[in-house]
Amino acid sequence: MKNQLLILFILILTMNLFAQEETLVSGDMDNGGFGALVLKFTEINDKFGLMIGGRGGWIMDHTFVIGGGGYGLVNHMDYANIIDGELIPLMVGYGGLEFEYINSSNNVFHFTVYLLLGAGSITYKDWDDWRWYDYPDNMKMSDAFWIASPAINLELNIASFFRLNAGAGYRFVTDVNLQGLTNSDIAGFEGILSFKFGSF
């Protein structure tokens, strides 16, 4: 009986020595990161818009990305008939948390699924002219909105540190409340081109 207890004790001790701690993120997981220049081609209130921005993220096990990004309208966009037919320049920008799933990252061609959740702002004002226009005091000149922007992309591994990512997505927005503009004016499809540099 004593020998059986001794053998059982040794077995339990051996199992504990070789047991590994279970964690949500494994210690032997490959991790990486990247930064990217991003171009977005879209329409805002039926007018062509070019948005330029940047994003970055932490890559877990070559598959899942969590990070953030920000984007702003760079081409001049005027809106008429807001006040007395005067042309009024518009500024648009947004950003937030970004999540991405990368399928078969080591393949030369593969696809990714992306989601941005965040907030943005729209303002009747010009990037190149920082004077405030003489608008009525009771006119709201800027507003904030919430945004959710999913996209699907094709990605090309050009070099170990450089990837080209191209895709399409849709910009869902809510809470736009600015004279002459509604949610549907700011929402819309986006063509996306990203130049990603990092450790993948």
Keywords:
200 residues, mainly beta, 56% strand, 2 helices, eight-stranded antiparallel beta barrel
Question: How do you describe this structure in short?
Answer:
The chain has 200 residues and is mainly β. It contains 2 helices and 10 strands, in the order αβββββββββαβ.
What is the CATH first-level class name? Mainly Beta
CATH architecture: Beta Barrel
Discrete helix count: 2
**What would you report as the Rg, rounded to the nearest angstrom?**
25 Å
Strand order of the largest sheet: 1-2-3-6-7-8-9-10
In the predicted model, the low-confidence regions spanning at least 5 consecutive residues are none
> Major β-sheet, in short?
8 strands, antiparallel, barrel
Mean of pLDDT: 84
State the helicity in percent bands.
10-25%
Describe this structure in words.
This protein has two helices and ten strands; from the N terminus they run αβββββββββαβ. With 200 residues, the chain is mainly beta. The strands form two sheets. It has an eight-stranded antiparallel barrel. A two-stranded antiparallel sheet has the order 4-5. A hairpin with a 2-residue loop joins strand 8 (142-159) and strand 9 (162-174). The model has no long low-confidence stretch (mean pLDDT 84).
List the helices and strands and how they pair.
Blueprint: H1 2-18, E1 31-44, E2 47-60, E3 64-73, E4 78-79, E5 88-89, E6 91-102, E7 109-123, E8 142-159, E9 162-174, H2 183-186, E10 188-199
Antiparallel strand pairs: 1-2, 1-10, 2-3, 3-6, 4-5, 6-7, 7-8, 8-9, 9-10
